[in-house]
Amino acid sequence: MTAYDIIQAKKRGKALSKEQISAFARMVAEDSASDAQIAAFCMAVCLRGMTDEETFLLTQAMADSGERLSPPAAGVFADKHSTGGVSDSTTLVLVPVLASLGVKCAKYSGRGLGHTGGTLDKLESFKGFNVNLTAEQFSSHVERIGAAIAGQTKSTVPADKRMYAVRDVTATVDSIPLIASSVMSKKLASFAQVILLDVKYGDGAFMKTARAAEKLARLMVAVGTASGRQVEAAVTDMSAPLGDNIGCNAEVREVIEVLRGKKNNLARLSLLHCERILRMAQGMEEKRAKALAEEAIASGAALEKLRRIVSAQGGDTAAFDDLEALPLASGKFVVRAPKSGKLHIYAQALGRACAQLGGGRQREGEEIDHTVAILLKRRAGDAVAKGEEIAEIRYRERRQEAFDLAQSAFEVKPSYRARPLVHCILGKEDL
Ligand code: URA
Predict the structure, then answer these.
(1) Is residue 369 flagged as an active site residue?
(2) What is the pTM of this model?
(3) Burial 176-211 (b: 16+ CB within 10 A, else e)
(4) How far is Cα 74 from Cα 164, in angstroms, rounded to an integer?
(5) What is the CA(216)–ligand 1 centre distance, in A?
(6) Residue 115 annotated in active site
(7) How confident is the model at residue 390 (pLDDT cuts 50, 70, 90)?
(8) Atom 8 of ligand 1 has which residue's CA nearest to it?
(9) Percentage helix, strand, coil, to 5, in the chain?
(10) What's the sign of the alpha-carbon dihedral 273, 317, 186, 251?
């Protein structure tokens, strides 16, 4: 069986067998499939789709492509994973909140994908932060500090690691079977029993409609439940950026501000996710979970926990005392409201503009510029006056094309219809 035959079968719309899927995942992990073959396979899946059965098999095959981690000790371990959005740094708020409350978080994260930001890239804003923990280091950090956030190593889910990097630069991200198998293979290879999935929908998400996001959410809950994990999926709005900043350093600054008590949609959604995880992990009732999560921020315990996580993984903690330790590029381009009315913000164009300015990748493996930022001065739905400053772009190299793209992300209309932050929450009883 060759990679060529497997790609050809998928290109012709055939359902792949267990043997074909396992063989392809193995070839990807062992480097015997080329990047071109991986790209062709992913494109064939994007265009032809996969049955739920094929997606289950691909997830298992990818999870088995490396070593599966075992828990470092008895106890409940939690994880949360987002399908990708713009200005979505919930992981960096949620993990320290939960860890400070005794819920241990074992978090395998990814890099920026397409127009979306990635947790690993943001963590590297703390100079020296090591995202490449060995399986032993990962387990030991979770046990000692209460949390670890790392990227897959060569030995953990190597098939996803390669496929993810190829998908990022070949427009093959927005496929339900590829996202479901990518996310869930990492979850199954790790040891968290309690998993909260944040499935985004809207302009800045890979799923454009709530319906498509619900389909993806159900599939991932089904894969996780079938493997004996406790999984819930929150389908959440990603039409406008979640937080107020886009770009690594700027987003990490905002995380620190939220952990110091700033209230915005990033804070709200992170707290809602913490509540769901506390309820799943500790069987806590809603009111108590909410109060505890809020107290973890108000007391400074969560901020202190993030400092510890960063320091334990070798990162520079200067930003906890002075946000300027996370510099922003010195070039400034101001975006003003073209007329008066209600502001609409489109997340995808902003994510792409940030990437074009160097804040994200155009090519696999490229270095990114952590200082590039888009700072929102006004939020979607705000009433704005003509000429008012609505955003500031911080850049190192002037690129008119990126400024035009960013400007196209703002529209002013007579009215604005807000969507709820959380569209629905799905669990195993909804399958
Ligand atoms: N996050 C992942 O881990 N994989 C995807 O495919 C999309 C988001």
Answers:
(1) no
(2) 0.94
(3) bbbbbbbbbbbbbbbbbbbbbbbbbbbbbbbbbebe
(4) 32
(5) 12
(6) no
(7) very high
(8) 83
(9) 45, 15, 35
(10) positive
